[in-house]
Sequence to fold (447 residues):
Amino acid sequence: MEVNKNIVILGAGESGVGAAYLAQQQGYDVFVSDMGAIAPKYKEQLQNWNIRFEENQHTEAEILNAVEVIKSPGIPDKAPLVKKLREKGVPVISEIEFAGRYTNAKMICITGSNGKTTTTTLTYHILSKAGLNVGLAGNIGKSFAYQVATEKFDTYVLEISSFMLDDMYKFKADIAVLLNITPDHLDRYDYKLENYVASKFRITQNQTANDYFIYCADDTETLKGMQGRTFAAKQLPFSIEKTIEPGAYLENDNIVINVNQEHFQMSITELALQGKHNIYNSMASGLAARILEIRNPTIRESMMDVQPIEHRLEFVAKISGIGFINDSKATNVNSTWYALESMTTDVVLILGGVDKGNDYSMLKELVRQKVKAIVCLGKDNSRIHDAFEDDVDVIVNTLSAAEAAQVAFHLAKKGDTVLLSPACASFDLFKNYEDRGTQFKDAVRQL
Fold:
């Protein structure tokens, strides 16, 4: 009897195309299907590998005949095709779940509503500097599946979103990091915070007593989520509010990390990544590094020379004494809160885009204290006007990055900061947050 080895990949982006290559390498008959147009570079890869694909459509008969489906994180469970697959009993999994089957590498998995990319990049930087044979993947860099197919890394640092976690079942993190939980993407979770929280805690599933769970002891939603859940892994909390041993804490403006009776200490003034949120990110990375017994001098050096991430509180330029900062990666309210909290000057704030059911109330106090004007960058800005009309005197609507930069420049004066920190997704006017940030930087340089 012939065994069905048909595997279908839904979505032909970085993760989908990488999964297709690994699946082909593992002897599956692979078919890639994308409801939109496939980017030329991915199309060329699929053609070079002789992998069948379709774009701008889904051929349901073929897809429903799969033995397993690997789904892009961007496709919601509510999608009719995904519902049909589940009704038929066809397993629908993530690229991370699939690729995890074919590697014995140690997994450091980092999730959270904010700070994932920074913490993942910093952890990878420390491990690389220590000479480990380490890969960087997940929501960042080259596809995890493609790296599993083509590289032989001993360790991976993976940035994991809640969408990826939703389709992970047997995959296990050796070190799981949960940075924080704030309302985000609630449109994908029936507008219920508890559903989103449950998704985040999947980072700890399948862990054993030999594994580690690193979390923020100052984060209310994380602590609430831990109640009633059991954890097999060793717990290592971090805090800037209280002394924690073992774990990480702040003492006289020094980060102290204590794992296995080993102490690491470093002044926060020495960190390359400044701001309160980056103290948390550095603590999480430092804990992961100490678990792996990376030497203290290597951790210190790495934290001093890591490069800031593009589109995340990225300094663009100073023009006529006005600073411009690109924080386009701030696609939720909490990210914008962190950005505002780190500002030490008066701010002209560029906000807006696709609102995912945002609650702007947490920004109101900081807006009153620091923001002199709001420039809206989005097709529908009514909720921003409603939220802040009593807190700032000037709220202006714009429809392009160039217009937003020009208006903000005219509203600011010497010594002020123009901050693009939208608190919203970007796809009403841009391809993605990178496109939004790049257009903003180009516009600033042309002022």
